[in-house]
């Protein structure tokens, strides 16, 4: 795995920093008749031994941490695009809810999106690097208190997009619409307020999500989603358990 540690990356970084420090302007304008030199960022760039020696200790530390095994999955956690419920989505949503409840015990369900999960996890050892690849963003856990009407909107969004990762919530998709919506095993009550664990990207309107834009209350938990995933997997490993996520029918469809 490469975590931006190649010499080419550092050359590009140095050039970028140099340009950023060269001027306070927001942009550069190429003057008429101006001269420029093109620097191709490819295999023609050779390693600078002095520079390699400089960053080598940091790269070793980074590689050691990224290769650290935090757990193991007994099944491949995949996310085929043509089904409403996936093993990867269930794993992710279960992790959000479990770790979210440690910080906010009143949390009732969790929600994410398929697009936010950037890789699959193959059967076998799970390293810190695998979880960085799964969630490479700086997203943080958020608790939202939602009206029942907003939860209905969220369920309809999930149904209209073919199903999304969720835990503590179940629904049936019929002709692209959500039906038989249940939170914690009980039918959705639009007169109630519910407590959701998600992440700031979605809470801020990312992925064109619906139902999250007008929460009754919002609590930022101050923990990155990636850290929550690492803690979830590490916790299972500490208890002598492997990940053994199953498809449990939390999202069903007529098709």
Automatic annotation (TrEMBL):
The keyword Aminoacyl-tRNA synthetase does not apply. The keyword Iron-sulfur does not apply. Residues 69-209 form the 5'-Nucleotidase C-terminal domain. Residues 1-22 form the signal peptide. Keywords: Signal. InterPro entries: 5'-Nucleotdase_C, 5'-Nucleotdase_C_sf, 5_nucleotidase/apyrase. SUPFAM superfamilies: 5'-nucleotidase (syn. UDP-sugar hydrolase), C-terminal domain. One of its GO terms (biological process) is nucleotide catabolic process. GO terms for molecular function: hydrolase activity. Gene3D superfamilies: 5'-Nucleotidase, C-terminal domain. This is 5'-nucleotidase, C-terminal domain. The lineage of its organism: Bacteria, Pseudomonadati, Bacteroidota, Sphingobacteriia, Sphingobacteriales.
């Amino acid at each position: 795995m490469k975590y931006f540690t190649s010499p080419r990356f550092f050359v590009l970084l140095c050039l970028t920093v140099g340009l950023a420090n060269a001027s306070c302007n927001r942009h550069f304008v190429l003057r008429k008749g101006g001269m420029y030199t093109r620097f191709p960022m490819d295999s023609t760039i050779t390693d600078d031994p002095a520079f390699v020696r400089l960053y080598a200790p940091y790269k070793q530390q980074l590689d050691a941490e990224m290769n650290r095994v935090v757990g193991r999955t007994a099944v491949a956690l995949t996310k085929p695009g043509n089904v409403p419920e996936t093993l990867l989505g269930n794993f992710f949503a279960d992790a959000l809810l479990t770790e979210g409840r440690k910080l906010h015990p009143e949390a009732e369900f969790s929600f994410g999106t398929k697009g936010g999960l950037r890789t699959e996890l193959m059967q076998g050892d799970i390293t810190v690097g695998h979880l960085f690849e799964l969630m490479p963003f700086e997203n943080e856990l958020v608790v939202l208190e939602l009206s029942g009407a907003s939860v209905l909107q969220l369920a309809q969004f999930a149904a209209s997009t073919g199903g999304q990762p969720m835990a503590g919530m179940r629904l049936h998709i019929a002709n692209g619409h959500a039906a038989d919506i249940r939170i914690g095993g009980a039918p959705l009550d639009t007169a109630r307020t519910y407590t959701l664990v998600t992440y700031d990207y979605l809470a801020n309107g990312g992925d064109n999500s619906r139902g999250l834009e007008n929460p009754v209350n919002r609590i930022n938990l101050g923990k990155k989603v990636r850290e929550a995933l690492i803690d979830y997997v590490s916790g299972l490993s500490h208890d002598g358990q492997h990940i053994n996520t199953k498809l449990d029918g939390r999202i069903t469809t007529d098709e």
